[in-house]
Amino acid sequence: YGMFLPANNGTPNVQVQSATDNGTYSSAFTQTTDELAGETDWNKEWAQISYVNTNALKYFGQRLPNSVANNTWTRMKEINLFLQEIDKHGLTTDVTNKFKGQMYFWRAWQYFELVKLYGGVPLVLTPQDPIVSSGPDNEIQRSSSSACIEQIVKDLDLAISLLPGKWTGVDNGRITSGAAAALKGRVLLTWASPLFNRTDDRIRWERAYQANLAAKTLLEANSFGLYKVGGTANGVAWGNMFTADNSIESVFSFGFNALTTGNPQKNNGWEQATRSREINGAGSISPTKQIVDAFPMRDGKPITASSSTYPYSDAKFYKNRDPRFYKTFVYNGAIWPYSGATNYKQWTYVWKKTATAGYNGTTETKGANASGIYLCKANNPNANNSIGNFSNSPTDYMEIRFAEVVLNLAESAIGTDKLSEGFEGIKSIRDRAGILAGTDGSYGIGNGLSRDQLFAAVLNERKIEFAYESKRFWDLRRWMLFESGATTARLGFAPLNGTRRTGFYIGVKTTAGADYVGANDPLLKPATGTAPLIDRDPATYPAGITTYDQYLDYLYDNYFKVSVRDDLDKTSPANWKFTWYPQYYFFGINQTVLSASPYLQQTTGWDSMNGGGTFDPLK
């Protein structure tokens, strides 16, 4: 577990294991989406990079170092050794079965991490002899992607048969049969998706459907389900589930603790990373306007089709939104509680100190994040800041939530033309979120949708439900949605290629509508005297206003001007746009690995210097 899961102060919500060869985490995959901005190795201009070394992920493996390291094949070797030796030492079957079940899960997990990046990889199912340097025993070729998928499924079936549906006491948090079944559903859904399934083979969709149906049934039999404690109104249950102990939503989680010293210390770095610098957080994660805009209105309709009952306005973009919006984002003036400061308000507005300058005054004197909006998803409102930061967070991270099983099943059902069943799955997620059903009972989605329209609906729902949970990159990739092509056309999606990810400026204006110009914060009352424009936190509100929410609306109506901030992505060159290159749908093997293991085939589309790769990951 320790070799696979995040290290102390890891932030798994925006990071993925797979970016390096040593099991550590990186945010590069999330930056290769519409969730975070920034250039990565995978959206640099293809002609200007040494891609066989720099851009061919090292996660596949590197030449053996002089000491044992935590990397892909070390983990695989330890698993294979364990499985080979466990039955030789007189332990009871009850003990060995549970051990082996967990190991089969982790071997399947490791192979799936490889296959979804590279396609087929060498299947090594027994420990290799380290003394033999060459020959058929150690020179194992890449197996086909289909053979690898079958091995992954075989291991997961063994795990399902050997593991309990629940663990208790000190074993709580170990892999369960339901977690193995849920991973099997995720694997077969990926195998059925357009990245691997270019002909839309319904047999693959049916297999994914059956696996996800079995997972949901098994989990429900063991008391897992959508977390609804506290009620679904206004997204209360949805927001609380991320910090609830032993949440029924948590199918498979990465465990953390609140220890401050010693080897067992494993704190979740998410709380510290997301909190603003004004309260001694890191303020290092800047959500994009693109994801903010993706959240629908209170009635489930997109902002581009908002109703007269729940209208959308750029000037007050935070009004009338999906309840999950308020449990995911912190906008200028929003209340963001933590221990000892239950009414803390986060201000992110800016102003001009001179008439000819841009926005160079800010409320965030300790340093602002890049996009003018913060993430509060999975923040604990009782997080302890008494030591000056939030670094000792024990909040577990749910890698597989029950909601994912529901949406995996819904997508698989749509794939097998069980459209009404798929639609019901999407609606159940929106119902739990607190979105209104509407007079037509569609939760804003609309009725009578085609197969492709429902595919689009389920992918949009995943984009919102799992925002900043390290799922977006894999969804964009398995549906090939980065660029214009068959799937973007089918689903009616605009490709990410050719776009820039942006943020918000909440600028201060005068009541006459002009930009405010002044040296001091225009809405902050000094120790003596009055605020230059108006006090953002007055002792009494203006006539007709009785609540803080009403007063914040008043400030936005009269003193705030919302505009787009376009410096999150590169500004040099000025015309830089996000670009995805199709070679990255299946990564190549790093050149150092090929040099040490020349018998391995390179992936097609890679290594053009040596005539191109010959391994077809679609087989």
Automatic annotation (TrEMBL):
- The keyword Signal is assigned to this record: yes
- Boundaries of every SusD-like N-terminal domain copy: 22-189
Classify the main location: membrane
InterPro entries the UniProt entry points to: SusD-like_N, SusD_RagB_dom, TPR-like_helical_dom_sf
Has the keyword Cell division been applied to this entry? Answer: no
> What is the top-level taxon of the source organism?
Bacteria
What's a GO cellular component annotated to this UniProt protein? cell outer membrane
Where does the RagB/SusD domain lie? 249-606
Gene3D superfamilies reported in the protein's UniProt record: 1.25.40.390
Q: Write the record's keywords in alphabetical order, separated by commas.
A: Cell outer membrane, Membrane, Signal
| Pfam families for the chain | SusD-like_3, SusD_RagB
Q: Where in the cell is it found?
A: Cell outer membrane
Return the protein name. Answer: RagB/SusD family protein
Q: Which organism is it from?
A: Pedobacter ginsenosidimutans
